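Please study the protein below:
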Amino acid sequence: MFITKISRLCNIPRNISLITQRKINNLPHQLPLTTRLLNPCIGSVISWNKQDCNSVTIKVNYSSNITQESPPLDAATFENICEETLDHLTEYFEELVELEPNLKDADISYSSGVLTVSLGDSGTYVINKQSPNKQIWLSSPTSGPKRFDFDTKQQYWVYSHTGVSLHALLQEELPKIFTSVKDIDFSRCCYSKL
């Protein structure tokens, strides 16, 4: 009951950062006097102070890394942007593998919108387009699965839950695998933002 009431507070625009305070009546008596929990919708902290047996004041700090909504892509534009993005990533991964002597068994393949980067003991990255959702999906052996939307205003792929770009995530993870390669720079790829 209490969590349901909190979840209604989560429907806010993405570009807002605010603190709000609400009083909710008729809460269960077993709540502690002061309690904190993570808000699952955007990870902000919710705290409440029990004032009496029937009501409590809630403080919610909302924030988001996404600055504004991006206009939708049409199907043809999405396909072209995906193709360019995946082609550039394929070329850059091939270049990195050639420069890394510790990854002789690495394999890079790109076909039908799916880029597979097998890095031996370091795991396999799969980056693929999802045309129905107009997204690029990443499966990373380090950070797990992510779904990236294209920001048409800023021209890059962004994970909407954190605001991190596809290329920035790769830039963060891959130097730990390509240890012999100096100056890994995914900003060289098209539609990147670090």
Observations:
- The two ends are 41 Å apart (CA to CA).
